[in-house]
Every structure is written in C-alpha cells, then in structure tokens.
Amino acid sequence: MLSEIRTLVSGGSSFERVTSAIEAFNWRPEIQAEQIPAPQRIAPYAYALEAGVTVGTDDEAGNGRLIILHDPKGNQAWNGDYRCVSFARADVGLEMVTDPLLAEVGWTWLTEALEGQNASYHDASGTVTAVSSRSFGELANEADRAEIEIRASWTPELKEMPDIVPHLTAWQALLCMTAGIPPLADGVVQLTNRLERQ
After folding, report:
1. What percent of the chain has pLDDT over 90?
2. Residue 154: beta bridge partners?
C-alpha cells in the first residue's frame, strides 16, 4: 500500500510532503490510527486514515476516518486545492441523545478543535446526527444504544507543508471529544506511536 502511495504522489512534491507529515504524526495513546485505501476518483491525490479510540483496556469508545484530498489545479467546490473530509462516531448516554442542542454541540466540537489548534481553514460544512436504538424480539436483551455521528469537510489553508499537523491534531481532539475523552492539558506533549502502516 505504501509503495502505491509513493507511486501516486511521484511528481506531486506538495502532497508527498503532506503524506510524510501524516506518517510522522504522533497520536495520543488512546488513538490507534492506520492508513486505509483512499478513494480514487474524487481527486488526483488522496490519503485516508482510519482510527479507533479506546478507553481502559481494549474498549472502543469511538472511531473515525479522515481523508486528505488534493487537486493541484484547485477545485471550485473546495475553494482551494486541498480538502479534509472527516467522519467521527461514538456512543453517548441515552439522556444526551434527547438533548435538542446535541447537534449544535457536536458541530462546536469540530470548530473549537480546529480553532484551538490554530488550524487555519475555510468553507467548512457537514452534518451531525444523533440517534438512539432499542432492540426487540430475540434481541430484546440487548441494551438500548445511542450514538452521535459527525460528518464534516473543510478546506485547510496550507501555506507550508507542516501546516497539515494542526489539522491532524484538531481531528484527534474531535475524536476524543466525541468519545468523551478530555483534551490534553496545555503544555502536555503526547508521546505515542506513529501511524501503523498496512
């Protein structure tokens, strides 16, 4: 897979520097991230990540995907030549899913994560979905469930290639907030594993 990415980005030095920054990124211990196959038809260049958020031992509290798209010629719909596409999902308490403000709060998690990491961006869009489910019949013994899904995309302002790092840090913060894990305190440095390659 990595060799395929290298072939894809040959001649695209801007995107190659972005992928190098992604692969060197240090994730929080609660997040296990790995590269997955990226969509091929949306943009000339794409890099995709999948991540799980764990608490305690191996209990998954949430998960998500992030796709970095790049079109060197620019894309009118993005109003730029890069686009971040994100999905974040986590179980929430049943009392939370009935809160009419949950969707607004979920969107605020994204914008606050981006702004808190000084991740310059524009043209953000997305949806926040909160649902609950109850099982019946032979599944009646299963507990009621509620979850929140945040689907979003934004155009990152990448004046220099390290500028992708604040967007990765913001996405990491979004995953943690969605899963109910508090953000890292100011001044705390994350000492974690690098991206697991397939």
Report:
1. 59
2. 84
Give the residue extent of every domain in the chain: 2-178
Tens of pLDDT, residue by residue over 124-152, are 999 999 887 877 878 878 877 789 999 99
Following DSSP, what letter does each residue of the chain receive, concatenated?
A: -HHHHHHHHTT-HHHHHHHHHHHHPPPPTTEEEEEEPPPSSSSSEEEEEEEEEEETTTEEEEEEEEEEEEEEEEETTTTEEEEEEEEEEEE--HHHHT-TTHHHHHHHHHHHHHHHTT--EEEEEEEEEEEEE---GGGTTSPPEEEEEEEEEEEE--SSGGGHHHHHHHHHHHHHHHTTPPPPPTTPPP----PBP-
Please determine, for residue 5, whether its predicted confidence score (pLDDT) is greater than 90: no
| Cα distance between residue 193 and residue 28, in whole Å | 8
Give per-residue pLDDT as tens, 22-60: 999 999 999 999 999 999 889 999 999 999 999 876 678
Distance CA 3, CA 5 (A): 5
Whole-angstrom CA distances from 93 to 52, 139, 142 are 19, 20, 15
pTM of the model: 0.82
